[in-house]
Amino acid sequence: MATGRNWDLIEALFDELIALPTVERARRLARADVPDDVRIEVGSLLDAADGGGILDMTPPATSTATDAQYSSLAAGDQIGGFTIERLIGRGGMGEVYLARRTTADFEQRVALKLLRGDVAGRDDLFERERRLLARLSHRGIARLIDGGIAPDGRPFMAMDHVDGTPIDAWCRANAADLAKRLALFREICDAVGYAHANLVVHRDLKPSNILIDRDGRVRLLDFGIAKLLDDSDAVPATTQAMLTPDYAAPEQLDGDAATVATDIYALGAILFELVVGAGPWRRDGASIPSIIRRVLHEDPPLASKASQRPDAPIPSARIAGDLDAIILKAMRRDPRERYLSAAELAEDVRRHQDLMPVRARAGTTRYRVGRFIRRYRWAVAAGTATIVAILIGAGGIAWQARKTAIERDSALAEARRSEAITRMLTVMFRDSRDSGAGTDATVKQMLDLTAGRLVGSLDTSAKSVTLITTLSDLYINLEDAAGADVLLRRALDKGIGKGDPVATAQIQWRLASTAAALGRTEDMAPLLDAADAVFRTDRARFPTENLEITVGRAQLARRNGDYDRAIALLTAAMPDADRIYAENHRDLLTLYNNLLVYMVEANRIDAMPAVFTRAEAALKRTGQESSMQGLAIAQLKGVRLLRLDRTAEAEAIFDRIATQRRTVFGKSAGLAVDLLQLGRARLALGKFAAARQVLAEARPIAIENLGPGAMPTLIIGLSLAEAMAETGDTAGASAMVAEAAPFIAAMKKPGAPHGVIARTRAVILLKQGRAPEARAELLRAEAIFRTLGSQGEAYLRAFPALKARITAS
After folding, report:
1. Which of 61, 370, 688, 762 could form a disulfide with 778 if both were Cys (CB 3.0 to 4.6 A apart)?
2. Residues 405 and 497 in one domain
3. The predicted structure's pLDDT at residue 740
4. What is the CATH number of the domain that holds 327?
5. How high is the pLDDT of residue 357?
6. Within a domain: residue 41?
7. Which residue has the higher pLDDT, 375 or 513?
8. What dihedral do alpha carbons 348, 351, 353, 358 form, nearest 10°?
9. What CDD domains does this protein map onto (predicted)?
């Protein structure tokens, strides 16, 4: 970045050259008698003025490339299975084409982004962006579909082609009222917050990167590019100015590292534009250098003052007060003074809409009472004396102090978590680079490298616990319970958090959850009891933690075969979950999924439709149909059909879900379970070779993500053994059973795996022509399943057919 004393030179030269033709501009710039850093900066600003940002995504459907834009591809060219239709954008590093993929099954239109041929040596940045974007699955973020290498060696990625309109233009065209604009803004915050939780900072948020699609939903484009460039050791000088200065935070323009706070600033600028109809910095005739100077040295104007004009979309009086305060807090020059997260910013907007006090304002008594009266104006009119008594009475004061303390603790926790996420961003990329993995490192590898080094370097403070729990949650988001478990156990063994009971309890309840996922039931009760002893002392302060303890106890009851208690605990917890997880879609849907799983295992098939109805309403409301939880709930629909002997319908559901999950999430634990269900359906239909194929794919995925002794891994292996036996490979099937046997024998309590392994042995013996031994094994399996009650009923339904086969052999 040029030094402050050169800004006069930069602005003067930029103003002189901006109106010239491109060729003349370049010639005059090369001959200009100015320092090299000024020449580089002015060239960057000119590029930025001509373009729309780094690798800009698809513009609105009505946009077309101009004749002046160079296109390296022609209509009809083939790139990785896609056919190019036309150029639709050209940015600082890439070209964007409208393309289509046509197969025998479907046709798909995409925005295909291709690294520009004149940007040599930046393949590593492009590849890193593509890998990280593959991890983002949110209804508000344009999805990565495919990627590869073009015939000329340039990398490409295919993204959702969003047929939509930039949010500012959409609001103008639809005369959107304030409520609609704020609702759309909260959707933006939700998508940005999701990306932050997955270690992606956008760094170039602006209205042109936020489209409203035909369904009226927000879709974010170009996610993560600028942050990834900033993480590189060799960032080209030109990339700095490619950021849009109207929405760039002061620290970006000063060349400092981007953090979550950087995106918060941009969100504040976007909210300003949504309510005012114009950005905070770009005034009539303003040049880019003058805009940058204002951003660096001035506070943004009050939105309510800027909207005092006849064509303003929202009256000034509707903005003054809360919205002014919210925007100013988001856009404070000091990153430490902004909102701690996108969720906190969205929450303040929601509080404004609900006529509740917003945290951005000073919170004087007059203001709080005023908001209370506006919110409950009819009740106040009838009972003013009662309200006054509540506000000034000792009980009211004590309650308010208590509430303030809780909010303070919550804010501090959010601050620690925001700081932890920012630190993870820095540490993970540094560790992957220093290890030699470089740009070839996957997110999982970066997590493992960071976790391996972090535990040894941390002290035992509560702040260290925040780093550990943040990292463990990232493992869980990647469906790597084993990775989270190793990290948490190492942290607990080292004594991280030992001086703070609350911090230690945060590790303990998470460790109980990973123990459940990995089948270590005996570890769960002591961990839950220890955490519960801390959290139950203050249910108002720890609502989420107490809910998590209840969920953990339901898991433990399920592991112990007490389905009545497990289902009762979750059913009773659902009203609290709907409230506590109102903005936490993932955890809310996970609870619905768990309740449905318990009902399946308890064979309460008739009770499931009511839960499906509530779960699907939540999925539709949050747009999470294609999320991990959405796919899991859809999978359970197939499981229910399997239990109702509608096997062909179930097979179709499992096949579709496995394809979706493989495409979006790769080789995850969820995919392993999808393939298990698909394999079981095909076994039931007599499609033994097809069943063997999918179960063989599922087993290594389950071992990698869950471990060799986890319950799903064992069931997959035994189902694969059955498929192998049915296709004639009894030796291979026997070897597979032998691998599973020690894990099952080590289980303290007989359960479904004991019955499954006996049933599998019966099939192997039958295929070997040893009918009497097969009959004995089948009777042993039958006896085990009968002892399991409702859980065993589903397994027993297939026994008559197998008995008949043994008798006929």
Report:
1. 762
2. yes
3. 92
4. 1.10.510.10
5. 79
6. yes
7. 513
8. -70
9. STKc_PknB_like (cd14014)
- Are 153 and 168 within one domain? no
Q: Do 598 and 458 reside in the same domain of the chain?
A: no
From 68-77, 174-183, 267-276, 701-710, the region with the lowest mean pLDDT: 68-77
Which amino acid does the sequence have at 642? L
* Residue 187 maps to a domain: yes
Say if 435 falls within a structural domain. yes
Supply the CATH number for residue 151's domain. Answer: 3.30.200.20
Of 204, 222, 246, 348, the active-site residue reads 204
pLDDT reading at 67 higher than 50? no
DSSP 475-521: HHHTT-HHHHHHHHHHHHHHTTTTT-HHHHHHHHHHHHHHHHHTT-H
pLDDT value, residue 693: 96
For the cut 70, the answer to whether the pLDDT of residue 88 exceeds it is yes
Both structure tokens of 9: 């030179």
Residues 6+ apart with CB under 8 A from 658: 671, 674, 675, 678, 694
Q: Which two tokens stand for residue 580?
A: 């506590």
Give the residue numbers of the binding site for ATP.
113
Check pLDDT > 70 for residue 203: yes
**pLDDT-based confidence at 643, cuts 50/70/90?**
confident
Q: Which has more confidence, 384 or 493?
A: 493
DSSP tag of 650: H
Q: Are 303 and 272 in contact (CB under 8 A)?
A: yes
The separation between the first and the last C-alpha atoms of the chain, rounded to the nearest angstrom, is 82
End residue of a domain, out of 516, 546, 576: 546
Could you confirm whether 204 is annotated as catalytic?
yes
Check whether residue 476 and residue 540 sit in a common domain. yes
SS3 annotation, 43-87:
HHHHHHHHCCCCCCCCCCCCCCCCCCCCCCCCCCCEECCEEEEEE
Q: Which of these three, 310, 341, 361, is where a domain ends?
A: 361
Q: Which of 25, 239, 57 is nearest to 158 (CA)?
A: 57
Binding annotation: 113
> pLDDT band at 271, cuts 50/70/90?
very high
| Cα 230-235-237 angle, rounded to 5 deg | 115
Dist. CA 400–CA 551, nearest whole Å: 30
**Cα–Cα distance for residue pair 464/450, rounded to 1 Å:** 14
Angle at 647 between CA 644 and CA 653, to 5 degrees: 105
Half-sphere exposure of 38 (CA within 13 A, CB side): 18
pLDDT (mean) for 688-711: 91
Is the Cα torsion angle 389, 392, 398, 403 positive or negative in sign? positive
Do 632 and 593 meet the contact criterion of CB atoms below 8 Å apart? yes
> Please, which residues bridge with residue 110 across strands?
99, 160
Task: Identify whether residues 181 and 123 lie together within a single domain.
Answer: no
Nearest to 193 by CA among 349, 416, 345, 407: 345
- The reply to whether 726 falls in a domain is no
pTM for this prediction = 0.44
| Residues 298 and 423 occupy one common structural domain | no
To the nearest whole number, what is the mean pLDDT of the chain? 77
